[in-house]
Amino acid sequence: MINLExxxxxxxxxxxxxxxxxxxxxxxxxxxxxxxxxxxSEGLIACIEDICEVLEKFGIKCEVYIHSGKTISKGSVxxxxxxxxxxxxxxxxxxxxxxxxxxxxxxxxxxxVELVRSVNPNxxxxxxxxxxxxxxxxxxxxVKIGGGDTHRFSLSDAVLIKDNHIKLIGSVRKAVEIxxxxxxxxxxxxxxxxxxxxxxxxxxxxxDIIMLDNVTPEEVEKTVKLLEVEGFRDKVIIEVSGGINxxxxxxxxKAGPDxxxxxxxxMRPEIVDMSLEVE
Length: 279
Prior knowledge:
Blueprint: H1 4-14, H2 20-25, E1 32-39, E2 43-44, H3 48-57, E3 61-64, E4 71-72, E5 77-84, H4 85-117, E6 124-126, H5 136-145, E7 159-161, H6 163-169, H7 172-182, E8 189-193, H8 196-205, E9 209-213, H9 217-229, E10 237-241, H10 249-254, E11 259-261, H11 264-267, E12 274-278
Parallel strand pairs: 6-11, 7-8, 8-9, 9-10, 10-11
Antiparallel strand pairs: 1-5, 1-12, 2-4, 3-5
């Protein structure tokens, strides 16, 4: 769901003193018009219902033809808008930008999920918290639509001990032990490490999830084997993250983790191009 206040703020950002062109060309024109949202490339549609919901609140009728999660091709008619020509031309770029980006997130997620499943169907592909402020709900929803795992929505969801926490505490083991003593039973404790030795220390201290950050697929495989030998493999979830993209994600999947998280999904999505055309 898009908050109406946020939507007004986005529109205000794009037209701080009004839509100058439309106001000059159609000064006294109160016509209602119909316009189509059309895909100019292939991909997966995402969050069109959220966009239509806020458009309805804004006074623009919106009829969805292709729902979220469905594949679109070049020329696909995604939705039809009906309403004041002033309002439709005012929101055109804002809604297209949102829809293109969110559909790109879903499309990119689907691509990575399919790559991983081709070699290891048990591995989940997850997004990270590298998301522009204000778009978190929509982006996480787009990830889910694409078949990915949403990971943490916020800092409040779970304990994730990162490198700066460990530097300030002094050691992986001590940081995990402190967290385990203070955390609620309902929250998991994850710790970020960069080698097999620290991963084992985290497991011994009681970590629920171990994130191998910015390591090679070889180091992931080494860590998995070490935890198996030491009897901890079935007691922890192994996540890998850092520098993972379509070119190397298959190699990481082959190394045997449970989760692969990547900011590529949200920071470098394959944008699905779209246009709005007045009928």
